Amino acid sequence: MRTWYFSEMAYHPAWDKGLARGSLRVNFPSENLDPQEAGTLLNRYLDEFALCDDVGLDIMVNEHHSTATCMTVSVPMALAVIARETTKARLLSLGNPIANRPDPVRVAEEMAWLDCLSGGRIEMGLVKGAPYEIAPANSNPGRLMRRYWEAHDLIIKALSTTTGPFSWEGEFYQYRAVNIWPRPIQQPTPPIWMTGMSVETGIMAAEKGHVVGTLLSGGLAKPMYDAYRKRARERGWEAGPDRMAYAAIVGVGNTREEGLRRADIIADYVRTAPVVAEPFTNPPGYNSIGANVAMLKAGPRAHRMVTDRNGVPIDHRTATVGQFMDTDTVFAGTPDDVFNQLKAFNTRMGGVGHLLFFGQGGLLTHQDAKENIALFGKEVAPRLLELGAPEEAAAAE
Amino acid sequence: MSRHVTISGVSLEIEEKGQGRPLLFLHPGEGLQPNRPWLDALARNHHVIAPHHPGFGGSALPDWIGTVDDLAYLYLDLAAELKLENAVLAGNCFGGWIAAEMAVRNTARFAGLLLAAPLGIKVGGVLDRDITDMHAIPRSAFMRLAWADPAKGEIDYTKLPDTELAGIARGREALAVFGWKPYMHNPRLKHWLHRIDIPTHLIWGEQDGIVSTAYGEAWKAEIPSATMETIPDAGHYPHWEQPDLFAARVRAFTDRL
Prior knowledge:
The complex is a heterodimer of chains A (397) and B (257).
Chain A: E1 2-7, H1 15-21, H2 35-54, E2 58-61, H3 75-85, E3 91-97, H4 104-117, E4 122-127, H5 134-137, H6 144-160, E5 166-169, E6 174-178, E7 192-195, H7 199-208, E8 211-215, H8 218-234, E9 244-252, H9 256-272, H10 289-298, E10 306-307, E11 313-314, H11 321-326, E12 330-333, H12 335-349, E13 354-360, H13 366-385, H14 390-395
Parallel strand pairs in A: 1-2, 1-13, 2-3, 3-4, 4-7, 7-8, 8-9, 9-12, 9-13
Antiparallel strand pairs in A: 5-6, 10-11
Helix pairs in contact in A: 2-3, 2-13, 3-4, 4-6, 7-8, 12-13
Chain B: E1 2-7, E2 10-17, E3 21-26, H1 38-43, E4 46-51, H2 68-81, E5 87-92, H3 94-103, E6 110-116, H4 139-146, H5 150-153, H6 162-179, E7 200-205, H7 213-222, E8 227-231, H8 238-241, H9 243-256
Parallel strand pairs in B: 3-4, 3-5, 5-6, 6-7, 7-8
Antiparallel strand pairs in B: 1-2, 2-4
Helix pairs in contact in B: 2-3
């Protein structure tokens, strides 16, 4: 299991006001942000990313828009800074919300540029994006996935074509001369990742052979991984752990209390991030017809819960660290605790090759964040690298 | 009773009721809802033909259809297929937009155009919102703006069968496909409304919070010799909220034709 550190570069000073308004996203006015403070925080967060290179961790960056939960508005911009401040870490964009991007060729250009700049260290996530990203982008949620797949195919063709220009006359995108300069070091393209939470995503990712990642949802992850492995087998190949990724909060400390304390502070991100005004949670077309039928049947007051390992529903907005640990949202404690928790998780999931280490929610102090990264990099990550598929892990003992 | 017809390769579910002058009714973004009393009320004096738009109800939404232009041509083809003569073309909300797009193209089969709180044109400046952003407000706020009496509009979705819920979910996605961006309008349509060459009547609910009567006045100004009247105790869907009054107003208009 490789470890990719990430943080959303949150603007946590505005969270209380956002919570009081019932929305931290889309319609939470930016007068609640002090730009000087935003700059200070961005620099601090980028320092935390840079530290990962020294302790042997890889790095992941994502983006959101119009929100106090994430100030990264552009993955390529953040990775451009990080690429210059690191030399070894692989750099995962997870990713570009390509169905919300009007210009997929620009996405390909930026990824190729970053791949050259970083000496071939880029991994490229092509993601659907969260439902509340539709409004800031004013992207049409109808036929969203058809647009996603056309952008996906165009980006891959743009990155891998060396004898351009070529033309593209599609349903959503039209170009007459695609010929990107520079082209990526990694040919035909940097490794490609997708994200999701459903069996359908697992199947689609397996069709392409992409890495599939999921966020903070243990109960949903296993069926998605299983669907991926089954579809890969049907297509004549075995999907190993290197195709599966999982994002979770990790708090590690020299004592169990310290690790739990750090995880609890980081987890405030998860308690806060889902708070978004109702109309932006399910734009029409974003979710499948089946999912919408289920939501209509559940009625307007139903709130989506995740379930713990015993099937007990947990509300992320109010969960304790212990409850988060029961839903595989948080791994926390001493380095031994965290390793053992992740090893057991790896076994339960049937092998997960990538941990997306959510190590800064916003409220964690810079000192705590640095110690969390350093301790994880030194004491946990090297042992995780030895973890393969569960049967290999068992055989090695 | 509904039936299916295939027009230009698109399978459409059509509700049909009543005798008299044909009236092609194009439904709002909230769907056709044929079980509400409006259909019977209109059918007392007209032969009502009401298709479910592609993607709504039991009508198919083929991949190649994606704009209101497509819907306008599709329904002009439907009118030809049904051999409509001297018919009334009517539409409410999103359906009013489609009806106007048809009427600027070809009015040969129609004697009159009836638009009830149509969406579809841009009137104000870049910072003016002519049409309420129905997708940026909670459902409860939408109901308060769209109905004079929101209680009359409530639907208990938890009681509906899955097939009907699936139709509603598909319809909501279809409305986004057609009207998400630019939001529920065609920036060029206003400049073609002068082409409408049949008597046109605008009906507006006095409590319409989705598009105002001032927006209706802008429509009236662009369509040659158009008339307009308001209906009390009605919001954005006057045919649902005041079905008898609406039908009476429609009859008064069609009697003039």
